[in-house]
Amino acid sequence: MRREHRMNVIPKGTWVEIERVLLRPEDRAPNLPEETRSCPYVLRISGFLQEDGEMGAEVTVTSLIGHAHRGVLKVVNPSYTHSFGATVPELLHIGGRP
Predict the structure, then answer these.
(1) How far apart are CA 10 and CA 53, in angstroms?
(2) pTM of the entire predicted model
(3) Per-residue pLDDT tens for 3-28?
(4) Which residue did the predictor score with more confidence, 81 or 44?
(5) Which of 44-48, 70-74, 88-92 shows the lowest per-residue confidence on average (mean pLDDT)?
(6) In 3D, which of 15, 69, 78 has the Cα closest to residue 59?
(7) How would you write the chain as a 3-class SS string?
(8) Three-class SS of 69-89
């Protein structure tokens, strides 16, 4: 049993992503659109674990610029998955040479 427990431990120094709620819905500005105001304002930041941790546990990380942040461990070795969407063929010729 103890061995299984250790297998879920993320070692200190691992690159991870944490999450922390900065504003609960009731703390958000009243002039925001309802669909925005009804959601928590969440910080997600990556950094190096400062102690061994487990997924879902509160941990401290140090960002690349040396700031310490505390939050719930969500992702190990996070990557970037965003894009600028599908290619718009009409835009490929803007600014091109004739």
Answers:
(1) 5
(2) 0.75
(3) 555 678 999 999 999 999 999 999 99
(4) 44
(5) 88-92
(6) 69
(7) CHHHHHHCCECCCCEEEEEEEEECHHHCCCCCCHHHHCCCEEEEEEEEECCCECCCCEEEEECCCCCEEEEEEEEECCCCCCCCCCCCHHHHHCCCCC
(8) EEEEEEEECCCCCCCCCCCCH
